[in-house]
Automatic annotation (TrEMBL):
It is a multi-pass membrane protein. This is MATE family efflux transporter. It is found in: Membrane. The chain crosses the membrane at residues 41-61, 85-104, 124-143, 155-174, 180-203, 230-249, 261-285, 306-325, 337-359, 371-393, 399-420. The lineage of its organism: Bacteria, Bacillati, Actinomycetota, Actinomycetes, Micrococcales. GO terms for molecular function: antiporter activity; xenobiotic transmembrane transporter activity. Pfam families: MatE (PF01554). One of its GO terms (cellular component) is plasma membrane. Belongs to the multi antimicrobial extrusion (MATE) (TC 2.A.66.1) family. Keywords: Membrane, Transmembrane, Transmembrane helix. It comes from the Bacteria.
Length: 433
């Protein structure tokens, strides 16, 4: 069991890091053009990340659907589920690309851009749009391969795409003199090359199994239905994060800077936990498809234990380094002090974070998207009143500490709703359906 988990989790971690690396490469290459260009790309990537991030359901819905059929021993139906997910991703991508091209000036202005930075932000957004259908297709194809218990191929494709992206961006920005637009065009081309690689891998398998290329109306409806619930789950998570930033901003620049530092470490650790969650999606879906309740139950216990222990280890490491880490990111002693307090609070909640991320993956793998969406709304109902106290009451000490204490309440609410769901076997729907 340990070998199976690691075989999926370790490659998933590498593939998860690839997308931020695409944006990091854009930032590094454009950064030498000037301040306005860098500011424009920064705003553009924020909009792009938000839009594409909401579409992560394409991978999360496709993985368990494919894994369930694969576990049931029905490879043609598994590939058909993946095919339908890919078609849905392509269709949504085309709609988003068209809307994004038209709305780019309004979106950049909404983010506060003006002057030369506004023009560069619009350029980056518009020339990123041709790559959006490929991005969403890649998400669905990645979910398909993970559902087929293949975590290595997405890692290889993501690594190759990152390397090609750097070469293209450098050549187009500096060699062709296309400035910010060249960076976006290079990334779009790299995304389409990745999409073509996935199609070259999946189409021959589909032909061998007699799976047609045309999507199934029932399959598209099932993908959209599961995806809709998963999108609502993602929206609730984004709402929690954005409302937290709103409260932090009201407390001043030092608090905002310290919060950004703490949130960076929360996000970094989340990558490792997401890798475990992705392994859970694949394995739980497969075992439920095979009808093996005992193994599903054992996998759930193992994943929960791994999440808790990972949280204990990272929490201890954060606590030990909380006084040192901020000095590497800021030269302001007031930011050091505030960030140290925030990191200590984050360290305390790490075991709960580990449990939450893993259980989230388990229930996604079980196809329990509706419960996750509704639980997300319940969690917000608990969190927002606590966050309001931090926003409006004159609390003593550093505000960033209180903000992260409030966020701990949110994570506890998530842990409670998810743990309640897996307290018995009712969340396990066995079989291919």
């Amino acid at each position: 069991m340990t070998r199976q988990i690691l075989a999926l989790a370790v490659p998933a971690l590498g593939a998860l890091i690839a997308e931020p690396l695409f944006l990091l490469a854009d930032t590094a290459i454009v950064g030498h053009l000037g301040v306005d260009q860098l500011a424009g790309v920064g705003l553009g990537t924020t909009v792009l990340q938000t839009a594409v991030g909401l579409m992560i359901f394409l991978a999360y819905a496709t993985t368990p659907a494919v894994a369930r059929q694969f576990g049931a021993g029905n490879l043609p139906k598994a590939l058909a589920a993946g095919r339908d997910g890919v078609w849905l991703g392509l269709a949504l991508g085309l709609v988003l690309a068209a809307l994004g091209w038209v709305a780019a000036p309004a979106l950049a202005g909404l983010m506060g851009a003006d002057g030369a930075a506004l023009g560069y932000a619009v350029d980056y957004l518009r020339w990123s749009m041709p790559g959006v259908p490929a991005m969403l297709l890649v998400m669905a194809a990645t979910g398909t391969l993970r559902g087929l218990q293949d975590g290595r191929t997405p890692l290889i494709v993501a690594g190759g795409g990152f390397a090609v992206n750097i070469v293209l961006n450098f050549a187009l920005v500096y060699g062709a003199g296309l400035s910010v637009a060249g960076s976006a065009i290079g990334t779009s081309i790299a995304q389409w090359l990745m999409a073509l690689v996935y199609l070259a891998l999946l189409l021959p398998r589909m032909r061998r199994e007699g799976v047609g290329l045309r999507p199934s109306a029932a399959g598209l409806r099932a993908s959209a239905r599961a995806g809709g619930w998963l999108m609502l789950r993602t929206v609730s998570l984004r709402a929690a994060i954005l409302s937290t930033v709103w409260v932090v901003t009201a407390h001043g620049t030092v608090t905002l800077a310290a919060h950004q530092l703490v949130f960076t470490f929360f996000s970094t650790l989340a990558f490792a936990l997401d890798a475990l969650a992705i392994a859970a999606q694949s394995l739980i879906g497969k075992e439920l498809g095979a009808g093996d309740v005992d193994r599903t139950r054992a996998l759930n216990r193992t994943m929960m234990r791994w999440g808790l222990w990972f949280g204990v280890l990272t929490g201890a490491l954060l606590a030990a380094l909380a006084w040192i880490i901020p000095r590497g990111f800021s030269g302001d002693p007031s930011v050091w002090h505030a960030a140290t307090i925030g990191l200590l609070v984050l360290a305390v909640q790490q075991p709960i974070c580990g449990l939450v991320f893993v259980l989230d993956g388990v229930l996604i793998g079980a196809g329990d998207a509706r419960y996750l969406a509704l639980a997300g709304l319940v969690n917000l109902a608990f969190y927002w009143p606590v966050l309001a106290l931090v926003a409006f009451l004159p609390l003593p000490g550093e505000a960033v500490g209180w903000v992260w204490a409030a966020f701990f309440v949110y994570m506890l609410a998530r842990a409670a709703t998810l743990s309640w769901r897996v307290r018995d076997d009712r969340w396990m729907r066995v079989g291919a359906a």
